[in-house]
Amino acid sequence: MSNKKIEIKLVYVIAIIIAICVIVFVVHKVNNKDNNSTPTAKQNVEISSNTKFKVADVEASKGEEIDIKINLLNTTNFVAANFEYQYDKDSLEYVSYEKGETAENAAMLMINNVDDKVLIGYVADPQKEKTLNSGNIISLKFKVKGDTKVEEIKNIFKCTTLKNEDGSDIKYDIEQGNIKIKWERGQELDEEKG
Questions:
Q1: Tell me: the pLDDT tens digits for 91-108?
Q2: Using 50, 70 and 90 to split pLDDT, how confident is the model at 189?
Q3: For residue 38, is it within any domain?
Q4: In the prediction, which pLDDT does 84 show?
């Protein structure tokens, strides 16, 4: 195995370990904020909610930079989350990210680009309001490669962890958007000749 592949896997493992440690710390801190209470056994139950994530549709030409906006709709209180955005490396090149207005109360927002995935870790600041407003959490910036052969790219966004204050899992839905690539007139003919 090459050193680059080992390095990528190591970064991925470290990011996951850090995210888990931060989630455990925040959940522990939130659960122990009242030292006079009697400890109780907590069950990891799934909390029903209307939480929904929406990845916005995007249209772009080859060579253009695009913003893939990940939005939160019908929010609920959550203190920790891990997200994953998988992209087509043959068609897109990761550039950067921009924190959205909805993520302003984050104590930590961790972004790692590993191979063909952007990993996002979110931990709420225990000193701030935990209710997130509907709106943009994060915008991922990509460049559409000039030699892409596709007309449409399906977004693959996953929420791998979504926890509330007592550490319970929160149900959610995801609405995936698409990336439509605009082809210039005559572009296909030029590429077929080459």
A1: 999 999 999 888 877 888
A2: very low
A3: no
A4: 96
What would the two tokens of residue 165 be? Answer: 């204050």
- Nearest CA among 174, 126, 139, 159 for reference residue 26: 126
Q: Which amino acid is at 10?
A: L
Q: Which CATH number belongs to the domain containing residue 164 in this structure?
A: 2.60.40.680
Prediction pTM value:
0.71
pLDDT at 114 over 90: yes
Residue 41 lies in a domain: no
Q: 29-85, pLDDT tens digit by residue?
A: 555 544 444 334 344 445 556 788 999 999 999 999 999 999 988 766 778 899 999
The predicted model gives 167-184 an average pLDDT of 88
Which of these, 157, 191, 167, 187, lies nearest to 69 by C-alpha position?
157
In a domain, 37, yes or no: no
Residue 33: count other Cβ atoms within 10 Å of its Cβ. 9
Which residues are CB-neighbours of 65 under 8 A, at least 6 positions away? 95, 141, 142, 143, 144
Which carries the bigger pLDDT value, residue 134 or residue 129? 134
Residue 152 and residue 178: Cα distance in Å, rounded? 7
In a domain, 39, yes or no: no
What is the domain range of residue 166? 3-32+46-183
Q: What is the dihedral of CA 171, 54, 68, 82, to 10 degrees?
A: -10
Distance (Å, whole) CA 113 – CA 121: 12
